[in-house]
Each structure stands twice: as C-alpha cells, then as structure tokens.
Amino acid sequence: MRAPKDLAAAHPLGKFPVIEDDGQVIAESATILRYLVDKYGDTGHQPERGTPAFWHHEALLDYVEASFAEVALAAILPAFAGQDVPEPARAALDLHMSYIAGERDTGPFLCGAGLTLADIQMSYLLALLERFGFLKTAPRIMAYWQGLQEQPGYIAAVDASGPMAPPG
To answer: Could you tell me if 120 and 45 are in contact, meaning their C-beta atoms sit under 8 angstroms apart?
Structure first.
C-alpha cells in the first residue's frame, strides 16, 4: 500500500496520487480534485460556490483525509497484516462510520442527490474498508459504497486501472 519508489521522481515524498499538468506537479487528492474543477470549469460535482451547501461539501472533502483516513487506517493496517484491530481503533471507526451515515440523510450521497468531489474522495477508503470486512456492520455505509460503485466514472476508472483495493 505504498507508492513505488519511482514516484519520488514526480514528488519528493513519493506521494500518490499525483498529477503533472503543464509542468506543474500537484499532489494530495482533494487538491487534485479542486485543481481539475478550476482548470476545466466542471462544477457539476460541487454545490454552488459560496452557499452553505458548498462550504459543507468543502468540509466533507477535507474531512476524508484530515480526519477519516487516520481513523480508517488504524483499523485497516492491522487487518492488512492479519492482526486483530485494537478496540480503540474499532470504536473510533464506528464513531466515524456513524457520522458518515448521518451525512447521507438528504440523499444517496454525502451532499444529497448528486455525486460530489467529497464522494469521490471517500471512495478509496470505503473500498479498503469493504475489502477487510468493516462495512458488514454498517449497512448504510455499505449501501452508500454500492451506490458509488454504480457510478459511470467509478466503473470507467476500475475498467481502466483495476480495483481500488488490493485483492484478498
């Protein structure tokens, strides 16, 4: 689950994902998503800029890496190594899963009826959580994950690059 060493040529920390566009290297998933929206003007995966819904979306987009990733990885990494997940890690994961489930109250996605950048950002962690069986006890999150996998963009990405999570 680490980037290949040759990515150090693209980014000094070997970060991934990373894109290079017009000689500019951009790392960090949320930054890449925002860059692509700004560069191509495709705001169809964001609420209207400046609205309360927009800022709620922005918080969720950043939440994935700033808060949820650490909690999810505290459960995923022991599972990946074939070890039991420590109880504090499981409790923290359950708390965050409950939070995420609550965010879906207005629709099938995090910000309602339409797929957003926050949903795209969330997909990798959900793929890993499903891979290690953590979604079995979270039916609302499992339904959300299944809905994400039905999106044309997700299907195209998997067809082009393979599954998001390493095989079992």
So the answer is: yes
